[in-house]
Amino acid sequence: LTAVYCFKKALLTLHAVALRFGGSESSSVPIPRTAHLPIFSDNVIPSLLVHLGVIDLTNADASLGLPELFPDAQDPARLSALLAAAEPLDPAAAKKDKEVPKEGPLLTVEQAYVLRAAAIDACELIVEAAKTLDTGDAGQDLSWLKAMGLPEIDAWIWAVAKDRPDYRKLDRFALGNPA
Q1: C-alpha–C-alpha distance, residues 153 and 3, integer Å
Q2: How many CA atoms lie within 13 A of 43 on its CB side?
Q3: Count of Cβ atoms closer than 10 Å to residue 122 Cβ
């Protein structure tokens, strides 16, 4: 087993500094390079990856109670609907209709860590797979997939989780009170 470290806020802060000041020629402080950083895993990305079938909890460690956390996640009809193209939105209605995402299951610190680590690993695998794709066969230019890094996939998942109405309604886990 390889250790997976989850430092969302620290890594996100480094990346924010790099984005804000990375193009500046006159910075008096060194600007970190962040392309190699893992995703900034919290509750949103792992929850969405479970709902989209990327992280499958059916065979996860039952002693941690992981398989029961998102009981609807493996429903084929639901998964098919979530993976279908998003319905076009009226921008005015989209702004008005945004509701607070539904709080999902309350997890222990250990359960949350396992899901966050699984999301970090899954996104690493997604980026690796994207770099090996034949990007010329789809009838459109998909060469950008080969340049996609982990911070970019993190930002994309966050954006769709926030902006796509059916994804916004999906349960996201929350950390329960420690016993």
Answers
A1: 22
A2: 20
A3: 20
The separation between the first and the last C-alpha atoms of the chain, rounded to the nearest angstrom, is 28
Segment 39-50, tens digit of pLDDT: 999 999 999 999
- The whole-angstrom distance between residue 62's C-alpha and the CA centroid of its chain comes to 23
43-to-11, 39, 92, 138, 143 alpha-carbon distances in Å: 15, 12, 28, 33, 30
Task: Tell which residue, 113, 121, 122, 104, has the closest CA to residue 42.
Answer: 113
What would the pLDDT profile of 133-146 be if each residue is shown by its tens digit? 876 665 677 778 88
Task: Read off the pTM.
Answer: 0.84
Q: Give, in order, the Cα–Cα distances in Å from 106 to each of 25, 47, 66, 141, 176.
A: 46, 12, 11, 42, 5
Q: Map residue 9 onto helix, strand or coil.
A: helix
The residues, ordered by sequence, that sit 6+ positions from 114 with a Cβ below 8 Å of its Cβ are 60, 61, 64, 66
6's tokens: 């989850």
List Cβ neighbours of 36 (8 Å cut-off, separation of 6 or more).
149, 150
